Amino acid sequence: MRPYARNSVGRGFIFQQDNDSKHQSKLIQNWFSHRHVTLLDCPSQSPDLNINEGVWAELECRFVGRNTRNADEKFSQLEEEWKKIPLSFIQSLLGSVPRRRRAVIDAKEFATQY
Questions:
Q1: Which Gene Ontology MF annotations are present (predicted)?
Q2: 114 pLDDT exceeds 80?
Q3: pTM
């Protein structure tokens, strides 16, 4: 992850994760800490401001019922489906960010419709 991020966006990158409980173990936290990876502070499992969750949900819907023999085949099929997602879908998710941001602020750390 680090070499890719540094080559793509430079040394000052901030990593965003979904803070799922499996990512909160001491082992994972120590891994980030020892490698001086700065993490974006966000609530646990909060899709409210993370449009990637919408993209993953779309991919999951497109992938239901498919069988794969190995990881390479699964990756190939995921990549194929990724390319079929219309740009308008991504633009719609991006366009929802101001509404999502307002909903998060108004909810005062409680759940939102997103």
A1: nucleic acid binding
A2: no
A3: 0.55
Radius of gyration of the chain (CA): 17
- The residue ranges of every structural domain in the chain are 1-42, 45-113
The pair of structure tokens assigned to 24 is 């909160």
Q: Is 22 exposed, middle or buried (0-12, 13-18, 19+ CB in 10 A)?
A: exposed
Q: Where are the beta strands (DSSP E) in 16-88?
A: 38-39
> If residue 54 lies in a helix (H) or strand (E), which one and from where to where?
helix 52-63
Q: Across the strands, what pairs with 14?
A: 38
Q: Report whether 48 contacts 114 (CB < 8 A).
A: yes
Q: What angle do CA 74, 75, 81 make, to 5 degrees?
A: 90
| Cα atoms found within 13 Å of the Cα of residue 80, Cβ hemisphere only | 9
Kindly report, residue by residue over 59-113, the tens digit of the pLDDT.
Answer: 999 888 888 899 999 889 989 999 999 999 999 999 998 988 888 888 876 777 7
